[in-house]
Amino acid sequence: MKEIDSIGLVTPQKLFFDCPLTLQNGSVLPHFELMIETYGCLNADKSNAVLICHALSGNHHVAGYHNRDDKHPGWWDNMVGPGKPVDTNRFFVVGLNNLGGCHGSTGPLSINPTTGQAYGAEFPMVTVKDWVKSQAMLADRLGIQQWAAIMGGSLGGMQALQWAIDEPKRLRHALIIASAPRLSTQNIAFNDVARQAILTDPDFCQGHYVQQQKIPRRGLRIARMMGHITYLAEDGLGKKFGRQMRQPNYQYDYNVEFEVESYLRYQGDKFAEMFDANSYLLMTKALDYFDPAKDFDGDLVAAVSTIQAKIFLASFSSDWRFSPRRSQELLDALVAANKPVQYIALNSVHGHDAFLMEDKDYQAAIRIYFNNIASELTL
Amino acid sequence: MNTSTTPLRGDLQLIFDWITPNSRVLDLGCGDGELLAALVKHKNCQGYGLEIATDYVLAAMQRGINVIQADLEAGLQHFNDNSFDIIVLSQTIQSMQNTEKILREMKRVAREAIVTFPNFGYWRNRLQIALRGHMPVSERMPYQWYNTPNIHWCTLQDFDKLCAKNHLNVLQRAVMSGNKRISLWPNLLGSLAFYRVG
User: Among all residues of chain B, which has the CA nearest to that of A347?
Assistant: First the structure.
C-alpha cells in the first residue's frame, strides 16, 4: 500500500441473483453472480450512489487495496476516494465486474449449471445492453432507484450511454469519457486481430482450454501487446522509450533488443496470467456490437432523444483509438436532440490510456462536475 | 429586465437586455459562461456556450451551463442549420482568422446574431495614431501591436459594409464607452460596438 489518501483496504463481495436473465442474443442465464466493490456510504434516501463501469479488461476493483502488500491500488484510485474528484466522503461508489468477465462475476470460467463444467466457449455472448440490464438488477438489489451518476471510460463510457438510453429515469448524470457512440471500422479491425491471435493459439482448444489444463498464453500475449500499442500514443511512447536499447550494439536476432519490446512483452505476459481468453473474446465482441443507433435505423439523434440524464463528455487529444472526433459525434447528436451536455477536449500525450492517468485539468473537470451533482442533491 | 441580484458585466448586460425570453441561444466564446448562466436563470433561455480555453471551460462548467470546448475557427459543425434563435459573438470577431466564414456560419445556424467588438474608430484610438503616431492601447484594446490576439480591427463603418456584403440586416446597433451607453456620434465616441443582425 502506498498512497495515504487512498480509500485504504477494501473487500469485494459477490452477489447471487437467483432469477433468469435473458440476454440480447436470446440465451438465458438461469442465475448469475456479480462481483462488486463499494466505497463510501449510501445515504438515507439512497440518492448519492455512483456506478463506475469498467473498460475492456477492467473489473470491480476501482479504488483502494485488497491487502497491505498490494503494490497497486484499484484501477481508478486517482479518481475515486476520500477528497478525490469522485469524493467517497459524499458519494457511495459501486464498482462491478461485468457478466462474462473473469474476476468473480459469472463468466466463461464459471460452472455451467447444465453441464457441471466450466462454461468455456459455451458462455453466451453478452452485450452492453445485457450489462445495463444486469446492473439495473444490481441497483434494485442495493435499493437504488436512481443513480446520482454513472461513469466510465472507453467501453465503460458506452455502458453509461446505454444506461442513459435504456433506463432514462434511473440516472441523473452520465459521464462518458474517451468513448464513442460505436466503434470505427479500424477499431473493429484491431479487435479482430486480437481475437485471431487468441483463436489461432494451439492451446486455445476451441475455447475449452480449461478442461485441457492449458492457457492460450501466446494468443493473449499478442492480443494485449497489439492492444497496448493502440492505447498509447506515438508521442508518449516515443518519449518513454525512444530507440533505447538493452545493449549498445545490434544483436541481429529476435530477442529483446529495444526497451519498448521488453515493455510490451512484460505487459503481454502479465496480462496472459491474469485474464481469461474467452472473456477477452467476449469483451471485444461487446465493443464491436455496441451501436445504440442501430435500433433507430442508424439515427443517433433519435437514439439519444429519450435521454433524461445530463451528460458529461471528455476526450483526449492524442487518443487515436477513441479520438476526440468520436466524442464529438455523440456531442453533435446530443446537441441536435437539445440535451444538456458539457464537453471538455483535454490535451494529453497518453493516448487512450489518458482517461486512467492523473491530469490536472481532467481531474478538475470531474471534481467540478461531481461538486455540482453534490450541490444539486444537497449532499 | 435583469432581475439577477448580482449585476452582469456592463457589456454583457446590454446583450442580455437584447435577448428575448425563452430563446435558444448559442454563445460563441462564452468565457466563464456569465451571460449564458444569467439567460438560463432569468430569461428561461436554453443554450450552449462554445469556448476554446480550458480554464474558461472549467469556470463555465462550474456555473453548470452547457459548455462545449471547441475552436470557432473550425466552424460551427456541431450545429444544424437554423437550430438557434440567437447567436452571440462577444468581443471575439476581431481575433478570428476567418471573419467572413464565422459570419456565414452564424447566419446558417441562427435566425439572428449579436456581434460585439472594440471600435477602432473610437476617438482615443484615433488620437493615439494621429497625434502620437503609435498603435492604440486602451481599456478595450489592452495589447501592444506585436502581442495582440486581435488581428482584424474595424470601425462601425467597416462593420456596416461587411454586413451589407454578407446580406446581414442591421436590426439594432449600440455603442458603449466604459460602462455607459453613448448615443451621439457612435463611431467616434463608442469604444465598444454592439450589433444585432439578421
Answer: B54
ipTM of this complex prediction, to 2 decimal places: 0.94
Query: pLDDT over 70 for what percent of chain B?
Result: 97
The percent of chain B in helix, strand and coil, each rounded to the nearest 5, is 35, 25, 40
Please state the rounded mean pLDDT for residues A257-265. Answer: 96
Return the SS3 of B58: helix
Tell me what the mean pLDDT of segment A38-64 comes to.
Answer: 97
**pLDDT at residue B3 is higher than 50:** no
The cell numbers describing B105, all together, are 456560419
* Residue from A139, A316, A337, A271 nearest B46 by CA: A337
User: What residues in chain B have their Cβ under 8 A from chain A's Cβ atoms?
Assistant: 46, 48, 54, 57-58, 61-62, 64-70, 77-80, 83
Residues A368, B69: C-beta atoms closer than 8 Å: no
Contact A198, A208 (CB under 8 A): no
What are the pLDDT digits (tens) for B90-143? 999 999 999 999 999 999 999 999 999 999 889 888 989 899 999 988 878 889
Interface contact flag, A365 B58, Cβ < 8 Å: yes
With the CA atoms of B120, B125, B128 and B133 taken in that order, what torsion angle do they form, in degrees rounded to the nearest 10?
10
Interface-testing mutation among B26, B30, B54, B65, with chain A (most A C-beta atoms within 10 A): B54
pTM for this structure?
0.95
How far apart are the C-alpha atoms of B176 and B181, rounded to whole Å? 4
pLDDT tens readout for residues A90-123: 999 999 999 999 999 999 999 998 899 999 999 9
Mutate to test the interface with B, among A368, A373, A375 (most CBs of B within 10 A): A368
Cα-based angle B111, B115, B116 (whole degrees, multiple of 5): 160
Handedness of CA A296, A302, A305, A307 (dihedral sign): positive
Neighbours of A179 (CB within 10 A): 27
The answer to whether the CB of B50 falls within 8 A of the CB of B68 is yes
Residue A44: count of CB within 10 angstroms of its CB: 7
